[in-house]
Amino acid sequence: MDPKTTLWFAEQQKKDLDLWFTERQTKDMKISVRVKKTLHQELTPFQSLAVLDTEQFGRMLTLDNIIQTTVKDEFVYHEMITHVALNTHAAPKKVLVIGGGDGGAVREIIKHQSVEKAVHCEIDGAVIEASRRFLPEISCAMDDPRVEIIVDDGIKHVQENKNTYDVIMVDSPDPIGPAVGLFSVSFYKDIFASLKEDGIFVAQTESPFFNRDLIPGLYRDISGIFPVTRLYLAVVPTYPGGLWTFTMGSKKYDPLEVDISGIPQLDTKYYSPDMHRACFVLPPFVKELLVQQG
User: Fold this and answer.
1) 264 DSSP 8-state letter
2) Residues belonging to the active site
3) Which residue, 222, 263, 238, is CA-closest to 71?
4) What is residue 26's predicted lDDT score, i.e. its pLDDT?
5) CB-facing half-sphere around the CA of 22: CA atoms within 13 A
6) From CA 141, how far away is CA 94, in angstroms rounded?
7) Could you give the CA distance from residue 170 to residue 74 in angstroms, rounded to a whole number?
8) Distance (Å, rounded) from C-alpha 238 to C-alpha 88?
9) Residues 151, 250, 105, CA angle at the centre, nearest 5°?
10) For residues 73 and 269, is the Cβ–Cβ distance under 8 A?
11) Which of 26, 77, 133, 228 is the most buried (most CB within 10 A)?
């Protein structure tokens, strides 16, 4: 066999050994990324957990074969689930994050000088430990003295802590498995009771392309409890469709009335004062979803 043929066979063998991670995002659509190395795998009491080093997105955390975050695009999600609410509230001092075991939301929260305490309540301690080990740039604030980590059920936590928090963020996975209860009207009512009289709540509420049946009901449930309810958008490349929704419920403050000239300068890559206002500008097809809730 001549050298050129030998090289060709070597290249083909290398291609055959390529490892790909595939997430089935809907019953008719998948996303695949090439994996350089599997860094960690385990079956926790709640779910299957893996950390992969990928070619396109760097290190990636998956739960039950669903992409949760990557080091390349995580800043979009974590900045938008936190700063919009924190800059809407007049003076957030005590903040709760339910879920979000990777710690990205906590990292963004403590950028706010007014915050005295950030409570991080995650049901699966294995996610926290894996993130500490393999995603240090995301989990880097977990040891901050203002942060309290509680490994417990977030639903139970809000039931047991009434009139406690200025802002509550629900950084949940998709509404399957252990996260189903984080999308229920009873949970939103418990959050309302756990907030102080001028408190704000925000949750990720899935894709306007592929969760069109879910979003109207969630918006109806939240707007039936909170005097001010707003849906806003961000672009997260690894989530189904890229375009992602968040829904805010507020007892008093309206994010559309914030004087953006007073928003402090933060070390962010996606969120900005202009983005604070722009994220609430909804395309007609998303507006239609909110009309459907009635």
Assistant:
1) P
2) 171
3) 238
4) 84
5) 9
6) 16
7) 16
8) 27
9) 35
10) no
11) 77
Pairing state of beta strands 243-250 and 165-171?
Answer: unpaired
- Region of 177 (left: φ > 0; alpha: ψ -120 to 50; beta: rest) is left
Q: How far is CA 1 from CA 11, 16, 66, in A?
A: 15, 20, 44
Helix (H) / strand (E) containing 67: strand 66-70
Nearest to 284 by CA among 273, 292, 276: 292
> What is the rounded distance in angstroms from the CA atom of residue 271 to the CA atom of residue 234?
9
| Gyration radius (Cα) of the chain, Å | 20
DSSP element (H, E) containing 13: helix 3-16
Block residue for tokens 């994220």: 279
Summarised one tens digit per residue, pLDDT across range 160-196 is 999 999 999 999 766 555 556 666 889 999 999 999 9
Q: What residues does 3 pair with on adjacent strands?
A: none
Q: Retrieve residue 234's tokens.
A: 């961000």
The count of other CB atoms within 10 Å of the CB of residue 6 is 10
Cβ atoms < 10 Å from Cβ of 58: 16
Tens of pLDDT, residue by residue over 120-130, are 999 999 999 99
Stated pTM of the model: 0.91
Give the Å distances, CA to CA, from 192 to 21, 114, 119: 39, 22, 17
Instruction: Write down the residue that tokens 């109806």 correspond to.
Output: 220
The single-letter DSSP state of residue 246 is: E
**All structural domains of the chain:** 3-67 (2.30.140.10), 74-292 (3.40.50.150)
Look-up of token digits 């509550």: 168
Backbone angles phi and psi of 101, in degrees to 5: -60, -15
Q: Which residue has the tokens 């604030």?
A: 141
Residue 289, SS3 per DSSP: helix
The tokens for 94 are 């005590």
